[in-house]
């Protein structure tokens, strides 16, 4: 069995990457980690040419990633949540798996899971949280392909404003919005997935569950 793990985070050795690697290591089977920012993929043009050939006509790395996904027995997608939606690389990756939809449901029955990093733990009034939105986006892809969705895990990430040198003048600082007017990069804790033992345990369980689901 082989589990493919795909990270949409462009940040080097990000929480998203490391969370995904924890889950992959816990599978105990063959795995491959892919960082989408190392590849070039354009969004789906909705031309539907892939209906005829199970291949995409776009000349980029989309078909290579699609074939790796086809050859894998299970898939974990790990993303983060700019503007409380799934990041664009993860979204484009899912769109470009559309060739596997045709002749005939080539991802059907494969176990799949989601890992999503966010900082907004609550949604705006009446709205889902950033991590819920991210997990739903991945879950919707997997359900549409008749995969077996094993679960989604939220990871607490870090506000990008922590590294901004204009934070004092900023009227839309997420640092102040989340942690109050006195928040500074010095007094806000940096979150590392490894420090959260419950989340690490949940990631390890996810790795085990995805293998169990394959052999069931
Ligand atoms: C352009 C941009 C916009 C963001 N907007 C949100 C947001 O609306 N909600 C949220 O929870 N996090 C937001 N984030 C924060 C990301 O979720 C955070 O950077 C992520 O936790 C980093 O994950 P990483 O450590 O895996 O790279 C944003 C980040 C970027 C770069």
Main features:
single chain, 216 residues, alpha/beta, Rossmann fold, five-stranded parallel beta sheet, 7 helices, 5 strands, globular, binds flavin mononucleotide
General description of the model:
It is built from seven helices and five strands. The two termini are 13 Å apart. The protein has a five-stranded parallel beta sheet, sandwiched between helices. It has helices at 15-27, 50-53, 62-71, 88-95, 130-144, 174-179, 197-215; strands at 2-7, 30-35, 74-80, 111-118, 148-156. By secondary structure, it is of the alpha/beta class. It has one domain: Flavodoxin domain (Rossmann fold, 3-Layer(aba) Sandwich). The mean pLDDT is 95. Flavin mononucleotide (FMN) binds at residues 9, 11, 14-16, 80-84, 117-120, 130, 157-158, 160.
């Amino acid at each position: 069995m082989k589990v493919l793990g795909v990270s949409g985070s462009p940040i080097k050795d990000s929480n998203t990457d490391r969370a995904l690697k924890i889950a992959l290591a816990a599978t105990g089977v063959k795995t491959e980690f892919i960082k989408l920012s190392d590849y070039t993929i354009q969004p789906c043009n909705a031309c539907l040419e892939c209906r005829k050939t199970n291949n995409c006509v776009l000349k980029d790395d989309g078909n290579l990633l699609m074939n790796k996904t086809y050859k894998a027995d299970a898939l974990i997608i790990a993303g983060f949540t700019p503007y409380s939606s799934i990041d664009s690389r993860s979204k484009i990756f899912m769109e470009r798996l559309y060739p596997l939809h045709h002749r005939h449901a080539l991802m059907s029955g494969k176990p799949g899971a989601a890992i999503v990093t966010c900082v907004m733990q609550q949604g705006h009034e009446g709205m889902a949280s950033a991590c819920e939105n991210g997990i739903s986006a991945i879950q919707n892809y997997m359900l549409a392909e008749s995969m077996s969705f094993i679960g989604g895990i939220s990871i607490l990430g870090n506000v990008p404003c922590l590294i901004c040198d204009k934070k004092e003048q900023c009227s839309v600082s997420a640092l102040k919005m989340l942690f109050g007017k006195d928040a500074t990069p010095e007094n806000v804790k940096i979150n590392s997935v490894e420090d959260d033992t419950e989340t690490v345990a949940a990631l390890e369980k996810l790795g085990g569950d995805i293998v169990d689901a394959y052999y069931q």
